User: Fold this.
Amino acid sequence: MMSLTEMSNSPYIVRNYQPEDFDKLLMLKAEAEKLEPTGRAVLSQVITENLGRPNYSPGKDLFLVEMAGKSVGYLDMAPELAIGRVILDCWVHPEYRKRGLATTLLAYALVRAKELGAKVAHVNVMEDDVAGGKILSRLGFSCVRRFLELRLEIAMVRWQNAGQSSIMHQHLKRGDEEALVRIQNRSFGGTWGYNPNSVEEIIYKTNLSNHSPKDVVLTYDGDEVVGYCWAEITNQDETAEDQRKGRVYMMGTDPDYRGKGVGKKVLLAGLAHLKNRGAAIAELTVDSQNKVASALYESIGFKIQASSLWYEKTIDQGAGAR
Assistant:
């Protein structure tokens, strides 16, 4: 690993992001998506919104690596300190790989993570990214979790009649954010990788461009929120109806209502929202160890399309980066 001292003598510069770097970052992310597509939107407004998210400081949590004034790589760190972790997103231009740049970016990020008091760093890569997995292993990461990528043709869904059930569904309204936070925490408390949202974060996320509070469907039993499904269109600019996709980002059910068929109603309500918005395909991600959720998705018709791996590295609180 190239040390931070050695880096000062190299032709490369690693530094924190500054507001005047915005155009460079936009071009770099556009180049990354062009060379190695991930499906992420690379638009000026989307990047601006991402830099302004709560509990994140781009001037401290985003690092750029440059050569002769050209940005050739970045590492973006998302702090999730409520669960003691940071999530790392790193990319180096293929022409500049195998020069220790990712290693050095990681060293800078770990110094910052240590300052924040994070205990672990996590990185998510597709399972078929063998090279990425090998690099992470060399950097001291170990694979700790496998997630499944599922896909469903909405036209194949068999919709259920709710009958006389007391279960009702309503879209999230302004002022309901606290109720959503409560049901999220009840549904996912103690679940691996779940970082509790705050009311501030819910408001931020539902105010993003191409997002809406209506994308969150709350499920009620009388006056009590017992579940929710957060589902959004992911390619709104796509004109072909059979190509429009939606994604179920999160769904959960109150533990007291599990095993009563409520989870299926929650999911179907979210899928109905996507159908009403013109989606032909629904996608979601599920922890492979969550057998109950996987069985629910399979019963609706979701099929496995791919899988990703989460890698973890413990952050040494007693020593700095080397």
About this structure: The first strand starts at residue 12 and ends at 16. Residues 1-7 have pLDDT under 50 and may be disordered.
